[in-house]
Amino acid sequence: SGADLVGYRPDSSSLGTNYLQLPLTSSIFDLTGDWSITCWAKNNGNAALNYAGFEISPDDISSNNAYSIIPFSFYIDNSGAAGLRGMNGSANRDATGTPFNAQDTWRCIHIVHRSGTTYLYIDGELDVSKSVTYTNPASAYSLYIFRWTYSTTRHDGRRHIDFSLFRMSETAPTEEQIKKMYYDERCLFHENAKCTLHGTSDDVKAIAYDDTNDILHVGTSAGR
User: Fold this and answer.
1) What b/e sequence results for 146-167 when a residue is b if at least 16 CB atoms lie within 10 Å of its CB, and e otherwise?
2) Over 90: is that where the pLDDT of 116 sits?
3) Digit-coded pLDDT (tens) for 125-135
4) H-helix or E-strand containing 219?
């Protein structure tokens, strides 16, 4: 509440049509090498059926059979269960328990593919891992957020999940870096967190740390 940070969820009046799409190529994001996907997510308490999440999948899935041509996806269901799917089952791995069962609790997700193994970290801690060999789709494909595909059916806009701070990288962070990102970023979700650089420039002119109140002050030409 009151924080500058922004999260996203599908419009409640448009269930089944809302999603975010980023067209990909192997030169933009190569699944065959090391990579990582990081975001924060929460169960917002809306009723929903089955899964919601994000995926990297072909734009045309008419020849799909139970996500056999989808290289990678991440799901969260309305019970709070979560996990990975893809590569015709070889990437399938469920998180331990139901990590997203607590309503309105933001949690940090790191999915890291490093040296042939995919690791799922939640709140900076390793949850599960699996050896996986990925290939890039042969046809046009994209990253889809708020989309889950099963067989030849797209499930879009299921609104029980919010996402924030979503990003992708063609590098695989170390466990130490993953922990640091989690501990640094969780402060952005505090009540009334002021975490936006205002004005026309993002050039930081001054910085100061208040070690009494544990607040970092950052100044640009537009102010603090």
Assistant:
1) bbbbbeeebbbbbbbbbbbbbe
2) yes
3) 999 999 999 99
4) strand 215-219
